[in-house]
Write a structure and sequence with these properties.
Blueprint (H helix, E strand, L loop, with lengths): L2 E6 L4 E6 L18 E7 L6 H8 L8 E10 L4 H21 L4 E11 L7 H14 L7 E4 L4 E3 L3 H12 L3 E6 L11 H23 L12 E4 H6 L10 H9 L5 E11 L11 H10 L6 E2 L2 H12 L9 H9 L3 H9 L2 H10 L4 H11 L2 H11 L7 E2 H12 L6
Parallel strand pairs: 3-4, 3-6, 4-5, 8-10
Antiparallel strand pairs: 1-2, 1-5, 6-9, 7-10, 8-9, 11-12
Helix pairs in contact: 5-8, 5-9, 5-15, 10-12, 12-13
Length: 409
């Protein structure tokens, strides 16, 4: 049974409760106003998380109350060493909160031990922190729920820019610009080279999705997104996946619309390796270093160009017979045609047509079917059997030359 600790009242008494993983209901015991923005940070074996917390406290403050929920967590399988690191972290950040909290900006440390599972991961802790945040909003559906990681620093205008964008554009969700700072490392340092390559890969993939006409070409980085409380609850909250919980969650969020990429502020995740989760930035960097390569291989841009032909002609499929759609896809590049045939594309489009009355609803239902998961499945079908993998720098240059667009990495 998970054990949850939190500070209670001004005297700093530790409250210890047992839970089936649901955290106890928040009580505003310190008399602070209920927040309009909450930044949730899962924290596992992070002895230097004070740097992240301090970065947030150094931010420009708006006239809105905001809170940081730092969810310090460990699992049943964790060693005594990890548990002790977490306990020290909890007491350190609790001391920081007692000195630095104000009526309008405050840190709430929550310490959870003995989480179930045979593997550690970020999904369950992120869910616990965000579910706790929803309770702290006390029913305020427009409360802004921000996801951050415990190895990040942020720009001075991080809080105010997120708040401004949500209010000015009436957003349901947002992704936030990020950059892994490696400029302090020597140019020959393999970690710097691998990080630059991986960040270029993320930029390339997002830009390629935008190029081919996919309607939700957004980053899915756990340390750089925000949603309203209403949006969070509408899609059923965060998942418990060991890794990729951010990706799975945001794929439910983006189709709701009113999403914006906020590039007027920035998150700075640490460039570091990790073996805690099976995929993501940390494992990707570790794999590159293990393989002694600083060249990131990726999907050929040709595969996205073929997908663009399909998406560009999507409207012509509306209320058309299956035979017409079959003729069209047979004229696509062979590898895309083979994938679509194997996936039952013609039958699926016919089903979508039967259940939609307008072109707008047809488009929406189509991309519910041909979603981000389907695109990944297609790309993995094509590579390497039909198109070989290529260096990300090569493919990104092709994209830039074609679209005349560039992103600094």
């Amino acid at each position: 049974m998970p054990v949850i600790y939190r500070k209670k009242g001004n005297r700093g008494v530790i409250e210890r409760t047992k839970s089936s993983v649901n955290l106890t209901r928040f009580k505003n015991v310190l008399g602070f106003p209920f927040p309009e923005m909450i930044i949730v940070i899962p924290c596992y074996k992070e002895p230097d998380v004070i740097r992240t917390v301090q970065s947030l406290f150094d931010c420009e403050r708006g006239d809105f109350p905001a809170e940081i929920i730092l969810l310090i967590n460990s699992y049943q399988i964790d060693s005594d060493e990890i548990i002790e690191i977490n306990r020290k972290t909890y007491h350190e950040v609790s001391g920081f909160a007692s000195v630095n909290n104000t009526g309008n900006f405050f840190l709430t440390p929550v310490w959870v031990e003995n989480l179930p599972g045979h593997q550690t991961g970020a999904g369950l802790p992120r869910k616990l922190g965000m579910d706790e945040a929803i309770r702290h909003f006390q029913g305020a559906q427009l409360g802004i729920l921000v996801s951050l990681d415990a190895d990040c620093l942020v720009e001075k205008n991080y809080l105010t820019e997120i708040y401004r964008n949500f209010k000015e554009y009436d957003l349901n969700s947002a992704t936030i610009a990020f950059h892994h700072p490696v400029e302090n490392l020597d140019e020959a340092n393999p970690l710097r080279q691998a990080t630059v390559q991986y960040e270029m890969y993320l930029q390339y993939y997002r830009s390629a999705l935008e190029y081919c006409g996919y309607p939700y070409p957004y980053f899915t980085v756990g340390s750089a997104f925000a949603v309203t409380a209403e949006t969070y609850t509408k899609v059923g909250g965060m998942g418990k996946q060991q890794s990729g919980e951010d990706f799975y969650f945001l794929q439910k969020v983006f189709p709701l619309g009113k999403t914006k990429f906020i590039d007027t502020t920035c998150v700075y995740p640490a460039a570091r390796t990790s073996d805690r989760v099976p995929f993501g930035t940390g494992p990707a960097l570790q794999n590159m270093l293990n393989e002694n390569t600083t060249v990131k291989m990726t999907y050929r841009f040709e595969s996205f160009k073929s997908l663009k032909i399909l998406f560009d002609n999507l409207d012509s499929f509306f209320k058309q017979p299956a035979e017409t759609i079959e003729i069209f896809i047979k004229n696509l590049p062979e590898y895309l045609f083979l994938f679509l045939r194997e996936d039952g594309f013609v039958e699926k489009v016919a089903e979508i047509n039967r259940h939609t009355a307008t072109l707008l609803s047809f488009r929406k239902r189509f991309f519910n079917y041909f979603n981000a998961f389907k695109i990944v499945k297609y790309l993995n079908f094509v590579h390497p059997d039909y198109l070989g993998f290529s260096a990300v720098e090569t493919e990104y240059c092709v994209l830039i030359l074609l679209t005349k667009k560039s992103v600094t990495v």
